């Protein structure tokens, strides 16, 4: 292994480990906030509202984060993301149930917005680093980019699942405030590791000089971004609020719900990591992968529709029907997400990969925002059944968009061979 190849692999491992640490606390945060304010008596719509600024802030953070990562380097932006998350945790820890409802909701909303900025600055920096480190390692290896993307994304989501369980456990053992303090301390250690381990200027490139240049994306990137809005809106329209509230209202404890969501997300992450073995590969990296994205999108769209039909038939145990359906949904969603995450880097120009990735994940955040907004509204007025119908509609839209994806990279933009 050459020195450059070893350095690329080392940096990839460090970025992945740092993002694991961040994701662990981010998953725990969701459970801490959701269950704490559900206990305080807030409605499903209000619970969804608490996460809205978290997602809305992520839209801008992803978009500008890609440009900042290209201008100032990925390491600096990863560090900024970790520090911002720590600040968000400390702001949330100041919350008191004795505050009036308006002040409490406003404070949590703003603190969640800070955490949303942190999440997507960190995500954009970390996922952009995959393109850089894979190129450093010698970007001609058969299938390596897909494998690195799949492993990074899958392991990250497995860690997020552990975070869901950790959040429920922390709430039960030490409570909301002390749980946040413990996580802030852990992230501080992760941040020190990033600062002292990664090259300061990693990923620094000539950033776009104007908004017009920044928005000038290829057809593939634009279509993937639109599909991503529908894909993640379809997940969060029932997963963020609908599923945990439905299970808790059906008699499950906080720990049981957290454990189930943890196991689901871990399994989802493992399937993501295995996606390269489930998708036919092509020498050009697109001609088989794009059709695979289309077929997997169509299959996924059928799942929530079938779950809704099953629940409409009034089964003896609705929670069992939902849990089994969610397991099937997780498998299909994981493959879809992994293929999309690979395709954005396959379409991206290597020189400004961070900007392309930032644009794409801004769409990801927009999808989550719309999904969460719809989730609270649909669950409050139509229960889990309405959430499932909303998910199916969004997924069919995602499938229609994938039909237009190009099977060749834009030859006018410099790319790295990714097969």
List the helices and strands and how they pair.
Elements: H1 3-39, H2 44-50, H3 52-72, H4 74-93, H5 101-136, H6 144-173, H7 175-197, H8 211-215, H9 219-239, H10 242-249, H11 254-274, H12 289-312, H13 318-347, H14 353-402
Quick synopsis:
The chain has 419 residues and is mainly alpha-helical.
Structure, explained:
The chain has 14 helices and no strands. With 419 residues, the chain is an all-alpha fold. It is globular. The protein starts with a helix and ends in a 17-residue tail after the last helix. Keywords: Membrane, Transmembrane, Transmembrane helix. This is MFS family arabinose efflux permease. The chain crosses the membrane at residues 12-35, 47-70, 77-95, 180-200, 247-271, 292-313, 319-345, 357-377, 383-405.
What is the percent of helical residues?
over 70%
Q: How many β-strand stretches?
A: 0
Mean pLDDT: 78
Low-confidence stretches: 411-419
Question: What's the N-to-C terminus distance?
Answer: 20 Å
Q: H/E series, N to C?
A: HHHHHHHHHHHHHH
The share of residues in extended strands comes to: under 5%
Could you give a short account of the major beta sheet? none
